[in-house]
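step=encode ok
step=design start
structure_in=
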């Protein structure tokens, strides 16, 4: 009998991070980091795990969206899906009735991400390879087949994508060797949560430098005077040679962003992240022109590859920050990496959330080995939260992500963590006052 997908289970898993204000920023003052956690099982007892990240209330809506995709997955041939994951992804995002809820945006698109990520996790496990290596060892033709070019051809053609991948092919083995030896550069947001005291910020910033990080990030946007004070304290703590990025999490309008950033410029912020609405492409372009040489970064809330295309075409960003579960999973992120390479814009993935570090490391490492061929000005975000709940947590050494060797995408949660944090019946939630 042909191996089939026999079940797709989804769990609403939430962690009470709001208690310590971990993850707090100008727009999300008390988030509870949460995962819409997906497990697909096959008739041969293989499993694949994926997730979409949210910040608490509403995670049940995300879980319902995943459940709505179940009929497109259960009963399908594993061999068929793995032979053409690009076609399967197009089915997930193209179902005519479910597509109406987007199209290609919001909770239904993030549901597709969770399922697509679970399929890639399954593929890696069956191949015995981490997903970064699985992707990096695919042929240029196989990688291009993952991409839906329908809305991209005015910016990236299949022929141009093939040229990018073929150009990077000769150095794949050497870059793989270097990656396994050294890892991939990271930066840390751990010191910079908005709810932390000045003393905690300074202590964590110094610890980050001692741990080998050459870039940290601070949340800004709630209070202009506090931002100047905190950025000044951080600059004094880390010195002139460590980059400090700042992140407004969409707090400002366009003119407000420009005015707010001028007094911060003498403290040499490396980039300003999400300075305004993530949908405002021309607004980002205007901010970028006005605040240079401060770089403009965005992408964690960018809804799909078409919006990334327009951000790049408009010259609106200096740094592209893709997310593992905002767009439709690994498959759509391959297209976004190719777009970034076409426009010569560095990719620094967003990872401020549960499970995102575990997943986005694969995308950045694949990009280095098989697409861009460089780590220059490229760093993966790192937050020191919740990794203990995963069966294959990220490993850092001297400010670098070490390349994962465990087969799959790294999104599998420990069963005991799922049981304890399932909302609302898990004991962690039942015992909270």
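sequence_out=
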């Amino acid at each position: 009998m042909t191996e089939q997908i026999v079940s797709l289970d989804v769990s609403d898993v939430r962690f009470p991070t709001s208690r310590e204000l971990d993850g707090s920023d100008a727009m999300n003052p008390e988030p509870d980091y949460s995962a819409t956690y997906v497990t697909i099982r096959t008739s041969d007892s293989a499993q694949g795990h994926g997730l979409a990240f949210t910040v608490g209330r509403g995670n049940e809506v995300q879980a319902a969206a995943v459940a709505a995709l179940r009929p497109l997955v259960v009963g399908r041939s594993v061999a068929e899906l793995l032979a053409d994951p690009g076609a399967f992804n197009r089915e997930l995002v193209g179902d005519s009735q479910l597509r109406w809820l987007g199209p290609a945006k919001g909770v239904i698109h993030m549901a597709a991400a969770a399922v697509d990520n679970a399929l890639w996790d399954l593929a890696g496990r069956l191949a015995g390879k981490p997903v970064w290596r699985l992707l990096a060892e695919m042929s240029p033709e196989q990688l291009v087949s993952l991409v839906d070019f329908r809305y991209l051809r005015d910016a990236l053609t299949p022929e141009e994508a093939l040229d990018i991948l073929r150009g990077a092919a000769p150095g794949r083995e050497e870059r793989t060797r270097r990656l396994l030896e050294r890892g991939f550069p990271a930066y840390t947001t751990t010191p910079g949560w908005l709810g932390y005291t000045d003393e905690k910020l300074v202590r964590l910033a110094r610890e980050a430098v001692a741990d080998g990080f050459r870039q940290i990030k601070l949340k800004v946007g709630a209070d202009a005077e506090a931002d100047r004070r905190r950025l000044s304290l951080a600059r004094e703590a880390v010195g002139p040679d460590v980059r400090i990025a700042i992140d407004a999490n969409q707090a400002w309008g366009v003119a407000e962003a420009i005015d707010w950033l001028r007094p911060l410029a003498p403290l040499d912020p490396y980039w300003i992240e999400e300075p305004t609405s993530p949908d405002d492409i021309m607004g980002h372009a205007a901010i970028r022109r006005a605040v240079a040489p401060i770089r403009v970064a965005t992408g964690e809330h960018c809804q799909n590859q078409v919006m990334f295309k327009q951000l790049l075409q408009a010259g609106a960003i200096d740094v592209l920050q893709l997310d593992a579960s905002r767009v439709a999973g690994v498959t759509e992120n391959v297209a976004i990496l190719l777009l970034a390479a076409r426009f010569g814009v560095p990719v620094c993935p967003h990872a401020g959330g549960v499970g995102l570090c575990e997943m986005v490391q694969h995308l950045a490492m694949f990009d280095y080995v098989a697409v861009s061929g460089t780590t220059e000005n490229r760093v993966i975000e790192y937050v020191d939260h919740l990794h203990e709940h995963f069966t294959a947590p990220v490993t850092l050494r001297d400010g670098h992500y070490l390349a994962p060797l465990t087969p799959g995408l790294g999104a599998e949660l420990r069963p005991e963590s799922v049981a304890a944090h399932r909302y609302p019946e898990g004991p962690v939630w039942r015992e909270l006052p």
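step=design ok
step=annotate ok -> DSSP finds 18 helices and twelve strands in the chain.
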